[in-house]
Amino acid sequence: MAVLFLVLAIGQLFSQTVLQKETSESTLLIGIYGGIATGFHLNFVIFLPYLIFTGIAISGFSFRQLLLALIGFFLPLLLVLVFFFWNNGHSETLQILPEIFTYKKIQLSTLASWMILAGFPLILALVGYFYSAVLRGSTINQQKQRQLIILWLVFFL
Predict the structure, then answer these.
(1) 1-25 as b/e, with b when 16 or more CB fall inside 10 Å?
(2) Is 18 or 76 the better-scoring residue by pLDDT?
(3) Degrees (nearest 5) of the Cα angle 129, 131, 137?
(4) Which of 4, 5, 121, 142 is the most exposed place for a label (fewest CB within 10 A)?
(5) What pLDDT score was predicted for residue 21?
(6) pLDDT digits over 32-90, tens only?
(7) How buried is residue 133: exposed, middle or buried, by Cβ count under 10 Å (0-12/13-18/19+)?
(8) Which of 123, 94, 101 is nearest to 45 (CA)?
């Protein structure tokens, strides 16, 4: 479920590059979708630095848009905390939150087997990226969207 909302947020970031104007609705939706994804799986808080960096560097967020996206990001998380507070689970929730990133990792397969599985799609993606970037002309919007995708890969690998 969390990945679905991250894909919706990336779609809103794409629309920010196409529209080239300040739209409060899509900026707020970027934050809300990222916050909902974090609410489903708290490790997706890693989306917040990606949102800030790409918003400023690629989409050209103003200070007002940046604050709007941050408020949209933290609003669903605040609603989750209010829900647990109303159900008398806030003390347990506040004890669990610092332990999010300290769970025991279980290795089911080796790194070499993952590299073999990921090798072919990664090679196809790189060939497609360089084919479209080098051999074909592209517009500014397409270049910005390629930058968003490359930064997505960098942040989430």
Answers:
(1) ebeebbebbbebbbebbeeeeeeee
(2) 76
(3) 100
(4) 121
(5) 62
(6) 999 999 989 888 888 889 888 888 888 778 888 899 999 999 999 999 888 888 888 87
(7) middle
(8) 101
Amino acid at 140: I
CA distances 85 to 71, 79, 92, 106, Å, are 20, 10, 10, 32
The DSSP secondary-structure symbol of 42 reads: G
The answer to whether 17 and 148 are in contact (CB under 8 A) is: yes
CA distance 63 to 56: 9
Query: Tell me, what DSSP letter sits at residue 103?
Result: P
| Confidence at 93, pLDDT banded by 50, 70, 90 | confident
Instruction: Give me 54's structure tokens.
Output: 């790409």
Residue pair 22/60 in contact by the 8 Å Cβ criterion: no
